[in-house]
Amino acid sequence: MTRICYVNINTEEVSGPYLSIVEKVFQKVAAPDTEIGIKSVEPGLNRVYDLGYYYLSFLNKRQIVERVIEADKEGYDAAIVGCFLDPGVREARAIASIPVVGLGESTMHLACLLGRQFAVVTVNERTLISEMEAEIKMYGLRDCAISNAVRGISLSEKEVFTRGMQEPGIVASDILDKAKKCVDEGADVVVVGCNGLGPLCTISGVVEVEEVHAPILDCVSIAVKMAETIVDLRKRLGVPAVSRAGIYALPREKDIKRVRGIFGLKVD
């Protein structure tokens, strides 16, 4: 059995409708022997667009990393950070002994395997769109994306996370309209760049621009399959969960305890 921890980057209190949809996606895409548990941040952010601000996202990252550390200690085989911007992913990799998968990184790299150029469709928030444009550059994928690669849908963030949770088809239809425009402008693959939007496409059956068979990728579904693959490679071949040769070099245990103590964090 493979056990994966999905780290919800918002508090459980505000995430009820969303988490029920995500669980349906897990049931649809995970392998029969995969068990997925959810850990929400507490305290944590309770609005999607807060993530587009560096300082607010910074405060939330610590709780994200703490949930990954908990999952590692509890025997999970991998962790997924449930946000397309991948907050805390690199920090968590630098301390956890299990694979830590980000939605954005895994989905955009898969998009590069399925087509020559991709586009990202996401919520209609300017700060988030700007952050995703920067994310594409950070991962070295700018040449793999079309011009003006990140597009916001027509529905507002409020509509998506209220009415859209009850009527996922209206959101999926909006995403499909934007995906078609991206394909018309040169995209071979369309990435749904939001942990809230992607699952709405999956449960609505929106997985391609049918006229040209261009894939529409739900970042949550892709991250689950990526986590399963990395765990499988580790179990079958012994491939390390993460390289410790470079930026993810592990600090000495005594230094980890010392610094966590300085910041008032739990030290085992």
* Estimated share of beta-strand residues: 15-25%
Strand and helix order? EHEHEHEHEHEHHHEHEEHH
CATH architecture of the largest domain: 3-Layer(aba) Sandwich
Total helical elements: 11
Q: Name the assembly state.
A: single chain
Major β-sheet, in short?
A: 5 strands, mixed
Query: How widely separated are the two ends?
Result: 27 Å
Number of strands: 9
> What form results from the Cα inertia axes?
globular
Rg, Å, rounded: 18 Å
The stretches of 5 or more residues where confidence is low (pLDDT under 50) are: none
Mean pLDDT: 95
Order of strands side by side in the largest beta sheet? 6-5-7-9-8
Overall domain count? 2
The CATH class name of the largest domain reads Alpha Beta
* CATH level 3 topology of the largest domain: Rossmann fold
Question: Explain this structure to me?
Answer:
Helices cover 49% and strands 20% of the residues. With 268 residues, it is α/β, with parallel strands linked by helices. It has two domains: 2-103 and 222-262, Rossmann fold; 105-219, Rossmann fold (3-Layer(aba) Sandwich). The radius of gyration is 18 Å and the shape is globular. The two termini are 27 Å apart.
